[in-house]
Amino acid sequence: MMTTTQSQKSSDVAISIRNLFKIFGDDPKSVLPQLHDGIDKADVQRKTGHVIGLNNINVDIQSGKITVIMGLSGSGKSTLIRHINRLIEPTAGEILLDGENILNLPDDKLRQLRQTRMSMVFQKFALLPHRTVLQNTMLAPMVRNEDKVKSEKEARYWLSRVELDGYEDAYPHQLSGGMQQRVGIARALTSNADFMLMDEAFSALDPLIRTSMQDLLLDLQEDLHKTIIFITHDLDEALKIADHLVVLKDGFVVQQGNPQHIILNPSDPYIEEFVSDINRARVLRVGSVMKPSKTTKKTAGSIDSKQSLEQLIAQADGDVKGIYAVTEKDKTVGHIEMTQVYKALVRYNLTTSRRAK
Fold it and tell me: How far apart are CA 334 and CA 318, in angstroms?
C-alpha cells in the first residue's frame, strides 16, 4: 500500500520518527524481516504468535502545528504516541528530537524530558482525586520544585483561559467530565512543555462538550502555536483540528499529509472508504479548491480561503455559474468558480478509477 508524505523544511520539524517498529511477543526481532506495508496483521499473529503494533512508521511532527494520528481500534495510534515519551519501548527505529534519538536517553535524561518538555492529556482525565483543581493544575512545576507563588499564578492564569475561574478549590469529583478535561488541558499548559501529547483526549465526552473542547483547543492554539500530537479515531474531529493528518491501519501509515489534500486525493481504497461518508461541503475549505492567482475575472463577490464550501454555496444563493475572489487577510490570493465547487462535492472513487485504467 502507498504512503504519501509532504516534504517539509527540516527547520520546521520538531520530532522525526524514523523506521519505527513495535512487535509484541516473545521474540519480536525474529519477525522484523517478514514485515512490509500491507502485510496481514492477523496472518502474522497466527503464524508467529506475535502482534504487530507499529510497522515501519515514518512521520515528521511539525513545530507549532497540530499533528493528528488517527485510525480505527487496533491501528497502532495509541501505541505510537506512547513511543514519543517512551512509555513503550520500540523493537527498532529512531525518534529524533533536536537531532538526538530519545530512545537512547538514559533514565535521568528521560525523566527530565518528560518533566520539562512533554505534557500529556489523557482520555480519562487522570486527575488526582485528593487534590484540588488548583493543586492538580500546578502538578508539573511542583514536581520540578519551582517557586510556588509563581507556579500558582501561572496555574490560575491557565484555569482562567479554559474558563474555570472560581473552581480553583473544587475537587475533581465535583466537576463535570468536560470541566475535568479542561483541568487536564490547563495542567498541560502550566507545565510549559514544548510538546503536548493528547491521547483520545475528548473521546469520553458528550458530543456537544466534545465540540466545545475542540473549539477551545483551536482558540488556544491560535495564540500559543504549541507542537501538539493528537490521537483520535474520529474523522470529523481529525479534519477539524489537524494541520497534518496521519492515517494508520494495522500498524502502518496508509497516507499522511494536509487533511484537505487527503480528502481530495485519497491514495488508497482504505482512505477512500474512510472519507466516503463525510459531509464534503462542510469539511472542504475554499482555499483547497480555488485556483491561485492575484487577479481574477469579474467576480460576484469575495470569500475568505478558510471558509467552507457550504458557506460559499450559501453565499452564492443559487448561483451555479458565478466566480468569487478568494482572500486571505483581505488580500486576493485566488478565485473559485461554482463549477469547481460542485465537482469537489462529488466523491472521487479511486477503485472505479483504477478499474477504468
Answer: 22
